[in-house]
Amino acid sequence: MQMNFCCLRAFLPNQQAVRAFGRYLSSSARVCRRQSRRRIIKADAEFRLDARHWDVAVRPTSFRSWKSPMTDPNESYVLDEQVGFLLRLAYQRHMALFMERMTGGLTPTQFSTLYRLREASEPLSQNALGRLVGMDAATTKGVVSRLLARDLIHVEKDGEDRRRYTLFITDTGCHLLDAVLPDVIGSSEATLARLTSTERDQLLQLLKRLI
Predict the structure, then answer these.
(1) Whole-prediction pTM value?
(2) In what order do the strands lie in the sheet with 165-169?
(3) d(Cα 148, Cα 39) in Å, to the nearest integer?
(4) Residue 22 to residue 2: CA distance in whole angstroms
(5) What does the pLDDT look like over 126-151, one tens digit per residue?
(6) Tens-place pLDDT, residues 57-81
(7) Is 165 exposed, middle or buried (CB count within 10 Å of its CB: 0-12, 13-18, 19+)?
(8) DSSP notation for 54-117
(9) How far is 3 from 26, CA to CA, in rounded Å?
C-alpha cells in the first residue's frame, strides 16, 4: 500500500489524518509479518530438503562432544593387550603355583634372598642384598627380620667398618634351601607348561631385555 501522508493531511482534518496514518502503519506491519513468515517457511523447507541428503552416518550429534576417532586415544587402548597388565596376571598365576607347591614356608622373595646369600662369594650388606634381589630398603629390612627370626641367616658387624653389617646364610638356611629347591623348580615348570621349549627360551630372553 503506497500512501503519501503529506497529501492526505492536506485534504483531511488533523484527527482524520492521524487515524488514516495509524491504519497505514498497521497494514504495513501485517504485510511485513506475512513476508517474514513466508521467508522463514521457505528457508525451513529448504533446510529439511537438504537434511534428507545429508549423510547422517558422519553427522555429529553434538559438536561439543563429538571427536574424531583418529584423535581419541581411548579408541586404540585395549587393556588386555598392555604389557603391564599381562605381566601382573602372569606373576599372580606364578605366585599361586609357587605357594601351592612350597613346603618350606618361604615366599618367593625370601627364597630369592637365601639363594643370593648362598651363591655370593663374600658377605653382603643389607643394601647390596636388596639390590641383588630387587627390593627397596623397607622390603629388605622386613625380609631380613623374618629370616633372622627363623635362624636362616645371621648378621655380623663388618671387620673393617663397624657401622656396616653383613649377612650370612646359616646351615639351617642352606638345608632348607636344598629341601625346597624341587618345589621352586616345579612351580617354574608349571608356569611355563603351556609353552614349548623354544617359546620358553624366547620368553626368558625377552624378559631379561626388559629389566
Answers:
(1) 0.63
(2) 124-125, 165-169, 153-157
(3) 93
(4) 14
(5) 999 999 999 999 999 999 999 999 99
(6) 444 444 444 455 555 666 789 999 9
(7) middle
(8) S-TTS--S-TTT---TTT-GGGT--GGG-HHHHHHHHHHHHHHHHHHH--S---HHHHHHHHHH
(9) 13
